[in-house]
Amino acid sequence: MLSPWGEQWTVEVASDDFERFVRKLPAYEQAVVVAAIRHVLAVEGIGICDSEWGKPLGRGLYEFRIRRSLDTILRAAGLPDAGGRREVLVRVFCSFVGNRVILLLGGYDKKRDASDRRQQREIARARAELARWKCSSGA
Fold it and tell me: Are the C-beta atoms of 61 and 93 separated by less than 8 Å?
């Protein structure tokens, strides 16, 4: 299980779907996803929706849009480059609980399949994960 990164927000993995998604990504994309979660999502929280990084999908589900290189993300966080200049196109689905908790629900590599059908299938999967989490947590 990925550990919570928690900068200003606490990040929790709400389902095995998210872990499977990350494990299936190539190493570079994994590094970009982790850096974006740590240095953007955990810092901005729901504020991502005020920028190109996020989009509300309704009913408590949000899309975190990752489409920058590793170096760009690290530089924006004030960190040195890691030698990763290739941009990615990844979607992470999440929800926000209370004032400072982010639940990671799933995601996919949009560069591999940018079809609307795939997008809708992944959103449906994330919604189901969120519903399961709500049932199991009593939320």
Answer: yes
